[in-house]
Write the structure tokens for this entry.
Amino acid sequence: MLLWLALILVFVLPRSNRNPRALLIIAPLLVVNLLYLLFKKAIGMPSSAAQQFDMLFQSISISISVMWLIAHKLGNRNRFVTFLLTLALMAVLGLVGAISYCGLTFSQQTGGEVIILAMLALAMLLGFVLTGRQCRNRYSGLRFVLYLALWTIAVCLASTLVFYPIVFIIQQVPVPISTVLLVALISGLAFGTFLYVINLPFMILVFYSPFFRERFYACLRLKSMPTTTPQPNTSQPNEQQSPHPERPEDGGSVSETLIP
């Protein structure tokens, strides 16, 4: 499948990902796939709907995997540029996902799925941006994931409340506006929850893996995030310390390593 081929290429082509620690991204990917299979089995999802949701799910989950694998390339730039590059990446992978499942012949239904996928990608990235603003002065992992849940669902809800009425008006569907808003409300909550549940296992990996945590810091660059880690003492145990160590000119610690 083209999406999985794209993931393999991201493991192979960047030299920084030729590292056993990069393979950790497979763990949350397997977790969300297992949860998705259990969800489909629990609700008895029909095959007609399964293909549509499979495309949305695989496109989003693999896009998130690729995003964290090349986050160090996307980060350390102007924040707006990072946002646009990440959005473009997810758009390309969304199109790859649509081609994987539907081929090059796009139907009206496929077009609707691509629009929903674009809405989910935009909602996820805006959720990160708004959560970053909320945590810029006070950051912790728990605080971040809680605000991420809030903003992801809120942005999805706002998107459906704008998008659904426009679609119903264009198609001239004879449905009361109250029904349209109710459908938009339920859909927004469902899509927001769906997106956050997919994203959460990846965020847990990001917080607990130094390899991916550095990439996360490089993308958000919040001033409340830790920016230095002390360098371990590599001197020999029997080596005598100088009684008068040189004092650095800037008054800081003798050695510290910046997280990129």
